[in-house]
Amino acid sequence: MAIAATLGFPRMGPRRELKRALESFWQGKSTEAELLTAAADIKRLRWQLQREAGIDWIPSNDFSLYDHVLDMAVLFDAVPDRFRGMPEGSLVQYFAMARGTDGTSALEMTKWFDTNYHYLVPEFSAQQNFSMRVNKPLAEYLEARQLGIETVPVLLGPISFLRLGKVREQSIEPLSLLPRLLPAYIELLTALHEAGSQWVQIDEPCLVLDLTDAERTSLREAYENIAAQSVPKIMLATYFGSIADNLETALALPVQGLHVDLVRAPHQLDDLSRHGWPQDWRLSVGVIDGRNVWRADMSEALAQVERAVSIAGLGQVHVAPSCSLLHAPWDVELESDMQPEVKSWLAFAVQKLSELCVLKRGVNDGKDAISNHLAANRDARASRKASRRLHNPDVAKRLAQLESLPLARAAAFAERKSKQQEHLQLPSFPTTTIGSFPQTQHVRDMRAKWRKGQMSDAEYELFLQSEIRRWIAIQEELGLDVLVHGEFERTDMVEYFGEKLDGFLFTRHGWVQSYGSRCVKPPIIVGDVARPNPMTVSWTSYAQSLTTRPVKGMLTGPVTILQWSFVRDDLPRDEVCRQIALAIRDEVLDLEAAGIRVIQIDEPALREGLPLRRAEWDSYLDWAVRCFHIAASGVQDETQIHTHMCYAEFHDIMPAIQAMDADVISIETSRSHMELLQAFEAFHYTNDIGPGVYDIHSPRVPTVDEMAGLLRKAATVIHPAQLWVNPDCGLKTRGEAETLAALRAMVTAARQLRHEP
Ligand code: GLN
Ligand code: ZN
């Protein structure tokens, strides 16, 4: 018989109980024992939910107090020296690695493949030794068994673990540490085996990336070494894409099963059947989307499972989500305000469990056994397809006319720059900020009051205007050159626009872990996106009415809105993005018509949208850049378009950044000491750049000298006439006093540079 499997489950609890427990512990309001009790409750709930739903393959060790990659680093004693003074193996040390302490910086954090989840980057050294410390996987396995639940420990595979890390001495490849890691890894597996674990799930998501021959050799070496010992059977899990050219390598490994993501890469079943399925291997088919919120097309999913059965045999098939459900919200039934019809279109993690179990029944007992479910599923899908929420004929019409829109600004950058300068009259090294100013408790309280109806729209508007007024005066006094209104009306740079646009849906409890205790609640793009009314014009024009200096209009770009939302699955992503781009274009043109001559379209998520495989980069970048043009290129030469991107590896996308042709791009560079600018230098980037001169993630106020130093350094790689002066990113998480001090010093630094030869 086929079984139902999950690869991992959300960690936060239905109401983000883990977040609360963690934050209260960090604030010293609760004890370690209380934190661990809260964690144990959540773990138990997750296991019980899965068992009650009928899941046969229930994971353990997919839970984490902060991050599963950090867990592996700690487990194998990959603890950098700066954390060594702390009690070994303690939570103090663990959270110091995750979050840093006063004197110690945390491990670096970066995106987990192409998701919005961030993992902590393991830091190795050339002398790195690995050994097994506190065995968390074993402890969790036994914890579940105590509750009468047999689980499958989930481990990050040795190759992915090393590949995701970095060695301090950059000349050394992380993979060269494999021979030292393997004994510890084998010790872990042996311990699990001795405790009675029959199977482990080893995640090697690196199998969906472009691998070198050396990496493939390491894979073979790792698993051959492991297989030579008495260890549990291994289900090798891949996700987020196709194994493609790594299939042969994977199928030759001495393991007993393979999980493939059929949502992202449905053609993989063809590849498997062509290649020949290894006898007796388990085939885990990811047919339920772990990365999105829509109810599955159950008959299509069932057909895929049946196909898998024809390849591997009924007794060898696992019906599974495409990847861990970590990336899905907990339970759509918590959405008590949501219309039942809309709810019937959605499946969060809990609903996905039932989908898996229904499919299991369908494949084991035949279609008839689940005919009610299939019918209900067909009805829900039909109701969604026919819903008026989805279709806006005007949007379709405008998309059809897109071909005739010019692909670029009318004039070349140099000509635009001189026309803009004629009326902007900016000094050299012009100063500006990235958009948001501190969202103080007061601002948040007022918004909460207004949301609860305790404050009228008019009162709230007056309050926001008073904040804008206060900050325009502050910026004038500081001597900034291009001002902003401060974004006080926005909680979040995507949510705000989603709420103003047609086609978006919001949840109350649809939280997804972003990192540690931090969660995001992405809006859901359900229908055609259109902009019924201007979204930002009144705030920006109000700000502009208060000053003779230019005020910059602030918008979130189409790719970022797409990337940070759950996107409808009935249209290609690029088409949804073009719809958003048209809506932003309307806003840009309205801002221009209202007299705003500098407009920033933020695209911090453009880099992270890059596909995992290089072969797919060009087509993504083509449409992403095209969407920026749709949004930005309708304006007059005299209107200055800015864009902003946070910290990213820019080398890979330089041609796209140049093709975007923003008049000014601001980027996060201070933490890399301007090293990121090298990408722009190497590419001979022609337009203006504002490399961030101070880190906004820390409350520390930088000195004038520091910032002037960074600017001088920038001026050695980029022509000074191209340079702007700004912080790394928005200031909304900072306090007011530190922000004023930092900006004052920043303006002074810019003035110093203006007077240097
Ligand atoms: N304009 C936004 C802000 O200042 C940009 C935020 C971001 O890049 N993530 O808050
Ligand atoms: Zn940013």
Helix and strand arrangement:
Elements: E1 3-4, H1 17-26, H2 32-53, E2 59-60, H3 68-75, H4 91-99, E3 109-111, E4 118-120, E5 123-124, H5 136-146, E6 152-156, H6 158-164, E7 166-167, H7 178-194, E8 199-203, H8 213-227, E9 233-237, H9 247-251, E10 257-261, H10 268-275, E11 282-288, H11 298-312, E12 317-321, H12 340-343, H13 349-365, H14 371-386, H15 393-400, H16 413-424, H17 441-451, H18 457-478, H19 495-500, E13 502-505, E14 512-515, E15 518-520, E16 524-530, H20 537-545, E17 552-556, H21 558-563, H22 573-593, E18 598-602, H23 617-632, E19 640-645, H24 654-660, E20 664-667, H25 677-682, E21 688-691, H26 704-717, H27 736-754
Parallel strand pairs: 1-12, 2-6, 5-7, 6-8, 8-9, 9-10, 10-11, 11-12, 17-18, 18-19, 19-20, 20-21
Antiparallel strand pairs: 3-4, 13-16, 14-15
Bound molecules: glutamine (GLN) and zinc ion.
Largest sheet: 8 strands, parallel
Structural class assignment = alpha/beta
Tell me, what's the shape?
globular
CATH fold topology of the largest domain: TIM Barrel
- The DSSP helix count reads 27
Strand order of the largest sheet: 1-12-11-10-9-8-6-2
For this entry, what is the oligomeric state of its chains?
A: single chain
Q: How large a portion of the residues is in β-strands, by DSSP E?
A: 5-15%
**Overall strand count:** 21
Low-confidence stretches: none
CA radius of gyration is 27 Å
Distance from first to last alpha carbon = 79 Å
How many domains?
2
- Assign a percent range to the helix content: 40-55%
Ligands in the model, by name, code or SMILES, are: glutamine, zinc ion
What is the annotated CATH architecture of the largest domain? Alpha-Beta Barrel
CATH class of the largest domain: Alpha Beta
Q: Report the average pLDDT across residues.
A: 96
Binding site for L-homocysteine: 434-436, 487, 602
Domain Cobalamin-independent methionine synthase MetE C-terminal/archaeal: 429-751
Keywords: Amino-acid biosynthesis, Metal-binding, Methionine biosynthesis, Methyltransferase, Repeat, Transferase, Zinc
Domain Cobalamin-independent methionine synthase MetE N-terminal: 5-309
